[in-house]
Amino acid sequence: MPDSSTTPTTTRALRIGVAGPVGTGKSSLIALLCRELGTELSLAVVTNDIYTDEDARFLRSAGVLDPERIRAVETGACPHTAIRDDVTQNLLAVEDLERDFAPVDVVLVESGGDNLTATFSPALVDAQFFVLDVAGGGDVARKGGPGIGRADALVVNKTDLAPYVGVDVEQMVADAESAREGRTVLPLSRLDPESVARVKAWVLHTLDHFRSGEHVAQDPGPMAPHFHAEGDEGHFHAETGETHSHVETGETHTHEHAHAH
Fold this sequence. Notes:
By secondary structure, the chain is of the alpha/beta class. The protein folds into two domains: about 10-210, Rossmann fold; about 225-255, no CATH class. It contains seven helices and eleven strands. It has helices spanning about 25-35, 55-60, 90-100, 145-150, 160-165, 170-180, 195-210; strands at about 15-20, 45-50, 70-75, 105-110, 125-135, 155, 185-190, 225-230, 235, 245-250, 250-255. It has a seven-stranded parallel β-sheet with strand order 3-2-4-1-5-6-7, sandwiched between helices. A four-stranded antiparallel β-sheet has the order 8-9-10-11, with no helix packed on it. Strand 5, helix 4 and strand 6 form a beta-alpha-beta unit. Helix 1 (about 25-35) runs parallel beside helix 2. The longest helix has 20 residues, at about 195-210. The protein is globular and about 45 Å long. The two termini are about 15 Å apart. Mean pLDDT is about 85; it is low at about 5-10 and about 225-260. This is Urease accessory protein UreG.
């Protein structure tokens, strides 16, 4: 697997991951960043979907970047697999964009929608957003998990919808700040220029630190053990030398193997 650490940070783009549950506004956040930063920086985007290129098509149709600067990765598996377990597809897509449009300042890598524990491998990205939205409920930030607790920045998105879904934004942000122990929390509404400016400033600040060599990619930690049930088949993921259990056509078997995370 390609190793991003072999590429000097001074000669490649800052790579920022955007993760979060389905429907929280990851693609909209990327579109917003492209609009806000596109005249100042050279940008590119990699999207992830299981079987489609829906997010890439959305961004291309929005006209936020040259369509050739937006590449889609079809993972064919659980969304977290391609951003943490085996990042090869994504890393190759990122490196292709950096080569084709050199010099690129920032590559934004969007995860497919996953649960509250999804995180990017530091082998793929240098920094990561985790995106929640108020429509998901005011208590969601209190539920914790690696993404909420330890991503470089947590975006509380769609704050303008709070009156319509009965959410106290100030309390939700306070809960997020408590869960993150002082790490960055960014309330965001695309209708609020000040909140947009804060997200833009965070990206520019991170880019400055990256270029100076001060920024070091942090690993938010492995995903929590979780269970997928698909049709009549399920499988369980845990971290570091775990046992996988599969239930297939009425037969149960287990086998042990380790994933590199």
